Amino acid sequence: MTHVATETTQLLAQATDATPDVMAIPDGTVVTEGGDVVHSAAAPYDAAADAGGLSFYPLDQFIVRPIFGPGGVFDPASPVPEIHWYTPTNVTLWLALAVLSITLLFVVGSRGRATIPSRTQSIGELFYGFTYKMVEDICGKEGLRYFPYVMTLFMFILFANFLGLLPMSFATTSHIAVTGVLGFGVFAGITVLGFVLNGPKFLKLFWMTEAPLMLRPIIAVIELISYFVRPVSHSVRLAGNITAGHAVMKVFATFGAIAVVSPVSVLAITAIYGLEVLVCAIQAYVFAILTCVYLKDALHPAH
Amino acid sequence: MEGDIASMGQFLGAGLAAVGTGLAALGVGNVAATYLAGALRNPSAAASQTATLFIGLAFAEALGIFSFLIALLLMFAA
């Protein structure tokens, strides 16, 4: 160890000699005698692996890989190749599966349109009734025009979340690229809708007539900021919840490698998995209900 | 112990950001506790307020998720 340390110091000394005005360790990379990198800023967990402990890679499950070819889903050891817009990736696969399951439930499952519904049809009717009541309760009767949009968002997020919970699957909603499109889509759609329905009166949303006149400009600035933070929080909430839940499960799975704590670890994963099922449903519900709340603002901007 | 002061700052910052998620947990707990207290006093009004409960939970939780995001950015993107 002393020898390695000396070697490192020499390497560092050489580096410092070569570029005297740069910091000794520009990117935190430390090289051992054998030349392998034991710690670099790009992969901080390598240091833990070197210390003889466990190696945690809780976020590796979110890497977007092509389905086929080297570095793909079936070859995770290789580095991820360049991904083009037409490359079928694991995100494509699981998003397509979510759409497919919803189609199966609502188109194939409810094909009979029976007065006494079959089991599959009752599940579909349950979702439909639940979302319909939610939109009606929050937005009122005139909000029901936009019910299909809320229903689509709710079902899509719910199915994407649940499919992501399957072992060895891919949680598509953990990516801000996916949730951001949904969140900013809601934001853009509702802003346009607000101006189309109310014209310039939509700006009354930011002008609180209940507040004293002196305070109104300040409140307007705060309201404006909170309005533009909406799409960010809307999408980051969903992605963050799913990412955090899956990462926690992975961390506990890593603890399973230690024989002493592995039974506790398995129990903990089971419990957290149960919690995650709940979180997946709640986050889809929260996304849909917040869409309704924002929609209500566009329909009735005056408070 | 090897490394440099930038990595130390990175890890310290990530750890401090993780404190924020704990504080958001207090907020979420407070929302749920207050709802339960209100619901037990007036159970007939409880069902109509579950939507408000979830909206409150979502807002309280979003801030915790933001600090979790900062921790992740510090660990893997900084």
From TrEMBL, chain A:
Keyword Transmembrane: yes
Main location: membrane
Transmembrane feature ranges: 91-109, 146-170, 176-199, 211-229, 249-270, 277-296
Protein name: ATP synthase subunit a
UniProt record similarity statement: Belongs to the ATPase A chain family.
Keywords: ATP synthesis, Cell membrane, CF(0), Hydrogen ion transport, Ion transport, Membrane, Transmembrane, Transmembrane helix, Transport
GO molecular function, one term: proton-transporting ATP synthase activity, rotational mechanism
GO cellular component: plasma membrane; proton-transporting ATP synthase complex
InterPro entries recorded: ATP_synth_F0_asu (IPR000568), ATP_synth_F0_asu_AS (IPR023011), ATP_synth_F0_asu_bact/mt (IPR045083), F0_ATP_A_sf (IPR035908)
UniProt cross-references to HAMAP family, sorted A to Z: ATP_synth_a_bact (MF_01393)
Keyword Lipoprotein: no
Membrane topology: Multi-pass membrane protein
The protein's role, per its UniProt record: Key component of the proton channel; it plays a direct role in the translocation of protons across the membrane.
Domain of life from the UniProt record: Bacteria
NCBIfam families reported in the protein's UniProt record: ATP_synt_6_or_A, PRK05815.2-4
Location in the cell: Cell membrane; Membrane
Gene3D superfamilies on file: ATP synthase, F0 complex, subunit A
Gene that encodes it: atpB
TrEMBL record, chain B:
Pfam families: ATP-synt_C
UniProt keyword terms in alphabetical order: ATP synthesis, Cell membrane, CF(0), Hydrogen ion transport, Ion transport, Lipid-binding, Membrane, Transmembrane, Transmembrane helix, Transport
Keyword match Glycosyltransferase: no
Marked site: Reversibly protonated during proton transport: 61
Main location: membrane
Family note: Belongs to the ATPase C chain family.
Protein name, UniProt field: ATP synthase subunit c
